[in-house]
């Protein structure tokens, strides 16, 4: 049965269409209202926020690192300057796969795997976001051209011009001026993030580190407009940086070179001071190294060669080398004995070639095994008589001896601006009880009287102790900076002067030290031959390995590096001291035979003019006294 045909209801269809149109219109109106509301919210309510955000996407603030202050010697010779250099930098956030970019750089510039490892290490170091990291310094023209041609393969990489620290004098001042290096993660945490933004290097050692704040300067800024790729379109505003302060050191390059020549390639240390001011005139630690290697990054092999060298070129012997002072300490011990009233200038001790404590069989030998007979203070210093100083130390006791030598700077840092300095060691009864859990023995006091035993001092401390004798107890702490931007440095921690009950005791010890150089039996008289000025000095020998009781030192049985160190300290002219010199020659054996001539050469370089004659300002009435008159 067929179904009836359904007639179309036009009225119903019309109502359906109208309802759908109404619903659609309502949806459209709601959507439009939502869009308008959102537009109003973004454009009106959040106008300030989004306009600022947009501006920040277009305008960037870039730091401008300040130029580092220059360093000069006392005569105006440049020791550290800044040289322009092209470097290759990478911004990790813009480089994408930065490891692959590094591979491309190595391939383009034909570098080694070691270079690739250094680049990766630099990229992984701590840094601030979007801060370019220099990975390769001192690009040549060919390398710059290769980077430019392959720029499309190197996102986030750019060639920039910057100033790089340079040391034109090379190894001459490596241990005093120090060097700069890349900022590591530990340093980054302690540095001012604002002032060091854009700075990648910092002073690591020496003057460069101690005066970092003065040398660095203040960072500057510039607001730049960039495109979507970060390329700078124009500079909107600029605040210039403040350059670091220039520093003039007290070091003299000519005296430095003369001191190095006097060492003649031997391992050792020399320090020369002006006793009237504390200025360091020369500071030599040999062997040395080229500080320029560290500025832009030293290779692994080059650093390993320096670090593992048996001669230890990186070790600052002047400030960190600890040696028994030997007989160079005897002038200070003599002052201690005189001032404490234990001895007088006329006190005599009989020397049979050894010394024995009461009720003890052990013999403490004098270097002169046959003995010097009756010895007073003047002769004891001239002959470096151990027996006399054994007796003096025994009479003083460890407590007074330690206290006096502390006043001379033994066992403490003496410098004003050398943070690397070691304090050395001045042993005491309490020190041994705490560190060794043992009582102090009388024999240990005896050997301290001749600068042996536990006592350890740096060449700088020995020079300062000698400067106190030359300066009659007036403390002027050694310092390297002569002026900072024209202003002399200020000692924030001055030392107390050594005031004696009888000031003439300084002259008595001074006279004994002159006899060392000019007396008929002086231990270093050969070093003063032909001198146009009077020298006050004292030789010393520091044992490297101990020898048994009763045995004699036999150099033929010892390896070269096991032989005694040679030391000598002195000042001149003796009656008007202008220079104090301390010398240590490692394994040199003889203080009077090896170290004393070095001291003489350094003094000649400072006191004599180009014509070989004593400079008029250093002349004295006693300069031409003869040994016969002295005797």
Task: Provide an overview of this structure.
It is a single chain. This protein has 22 helices and 20 strands. With 631 residues, the chain is an alpha+beta fold. Strand 19 and strand 20 form a beta hairpin. The chain is elongated and about 155 Å long.
Short synopsis of the structure:
The protein has 631 residues and is an alpha+beta fold. It has two domains: 61-248, Penicillin-binding protein 2a (Domain 2), CATH 3.90.1310.10; 253-630, Beta-lactamase (3-Layer(aba) Sandwich).
Please describe the structure with a list of short key phrases separated by commas or semicolons.
631 residues; alpha+beta; 2 domains; six-stranded mixed beta sheet; five-stranded antiparallel beta sheet; 20 strands; disordered C terminus
Largest sheet: 6 strands, mixed
Look at the helices and sheets and give the structural class. alpha+beta
Whole-number total of structural domains: 2
Beta fraction of the residues? 15-25%
Unreliable stretches covering 5 or more consecutive residues? 621-631
Q: Helix fraction?
A: 25-40%
CATH class of the largest domain: Alpha Beta
Tell how many strands the DSSP assignment holds: 20
Shape-level CATH architecture of the largest domain = 3-Layer(aba) Sandwich
Gyration radius, in Å: 37 Å
Count of runs of 4 or more consecutive helical residues: 22
Q: What's the rounded overall pLDDT mean? A: 87
> Going by CATH, what is the homologous superfamily of the largest domain?
DD-peptidase/beta-lactamase superfamily
Instruction: Tell me the span between the first and last alpha carbons.
Output: 160 Å
CATH topology of the largest domain: Beta-lactamase
Shape: elongated
């Amino acid at each position: 049965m067929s179904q009836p045909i359904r007639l179309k209801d036009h009225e119903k269809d019309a109502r359906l269409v109208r309802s759908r149109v109404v619903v659609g219109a309502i949806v459209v109106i709601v959507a439009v209202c939502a869009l308008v509301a959102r537009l109003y919210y973004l454009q009106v309510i959040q106008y300030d926020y989004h306009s600022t955000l947009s501006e920040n996407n277009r305008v960037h603030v870039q730091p401008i690192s300040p130029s580092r202050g220059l360093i000069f010697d006392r005569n105006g010779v440049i020791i550290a300057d800044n040289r322009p250099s092209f470097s290759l930098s990478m911004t990790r956030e813009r480089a994408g796969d930065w490891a692959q970019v590094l591979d491309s750089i190595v391939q383009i510039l034909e570098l080694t795997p070691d270079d690739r490892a250094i680049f990766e290490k630099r990229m992984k170091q701590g840094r601030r976001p979007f801060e370019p990291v220099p990975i390769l310094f001192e690009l040549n023209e060919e390398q710059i051209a290769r980077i430019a041609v392959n720029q499309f393969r190197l996102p986030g990489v750019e060639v920039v011009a910057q100033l790089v620290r340079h040391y034109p004098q090379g190894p001459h001042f490596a241990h005093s001026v120090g060097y700069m290096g890349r900022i590591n993660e530990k340093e980054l945490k302690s540095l001012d993030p604002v002032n060091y933004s854009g700075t990648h290097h910092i002073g690591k050692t020496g003057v460069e580190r101690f005066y970092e704040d003065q040398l660095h300067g203040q960072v500057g800024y510039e607001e730049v407009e960039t495109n979507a790729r970060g390329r700078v379109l124009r500079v909107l505003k600029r605040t210039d940086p403040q350059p670091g302060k220039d520093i003039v050191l007290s070091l003299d390059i000519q005296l430095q070179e003369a001191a190095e020549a006097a060492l003649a390639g031997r391992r050792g240390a020399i320090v020369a001071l002006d006793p009237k001011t504390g200025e360091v005139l020369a500071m030599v630690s040999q062997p040395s190294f080229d500080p320029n290697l560290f500025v832009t990054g030293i290779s692994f092999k080059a650093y390993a060669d320096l670090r593992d060298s048996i001669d230890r070129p990186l070790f600052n012997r002047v400030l960190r080398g600890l040696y028994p002072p030997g007989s160079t300490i005897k002038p200070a011990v003599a002052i201690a004995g005189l001032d404490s009233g234990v001895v007088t200038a006329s006190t005599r001790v009989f020397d049979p070639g050894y010394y024995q404590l009461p009720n003890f069989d052990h013999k403490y030998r004098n270097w002169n095994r046959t003995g010097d007979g009756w010895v007073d203070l003047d002769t004891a210093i001239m002959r470096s008589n151990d027996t006399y100083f054994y007796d003096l130390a025994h009479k003083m006791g460890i407590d007074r001896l330690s206290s006096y030598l502390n006043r001379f700077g033994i066992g403490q840092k003496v410098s004003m601006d050398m943070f690397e300095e070691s304090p050395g060691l001045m042993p005491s009864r309490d020190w041994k009880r705490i560190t060794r859990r043992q009582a102090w023995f009388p024999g240990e006091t005896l050997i301290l009287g001749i600068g042996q035993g536990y006592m350890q001092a740096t060449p700088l401390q020995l020079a300062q102790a000698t400067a106190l004798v030359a300066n009659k107890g007036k403390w002027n702490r050694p310092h390297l900076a002569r002026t900072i931007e024209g202003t002399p440095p200020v000692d924030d921690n001055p030392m107390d002067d050594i005031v004696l009950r009888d000031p003439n005791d300084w002259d008595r010890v001074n006279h004994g030290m002159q006899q060392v150089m000019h007396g008929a039996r002086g231990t270093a008289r050969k070093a003063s031959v032909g001198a146009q000025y009077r020298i006050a000095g004292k030789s010393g020998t520091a044992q490297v390995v101990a020898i048994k009781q009763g045995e004699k030192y036999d150099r033929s049985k010892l390896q070269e590096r096991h032989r005694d160190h040679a030391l000598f300290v002195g000042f001149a002219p003796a009656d008007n001291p202008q220079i104090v010199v301390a010398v240590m020659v490692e394994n040199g054996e003889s203080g009077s035979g090896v170290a004393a001539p070095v001291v003489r050469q350094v003094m000649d370089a400072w006191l004599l003019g180009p014509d070989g004659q004593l400079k008029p300002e250093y002349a004295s009435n006693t300069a031409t006294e003869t040994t016969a008159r002295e005797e």
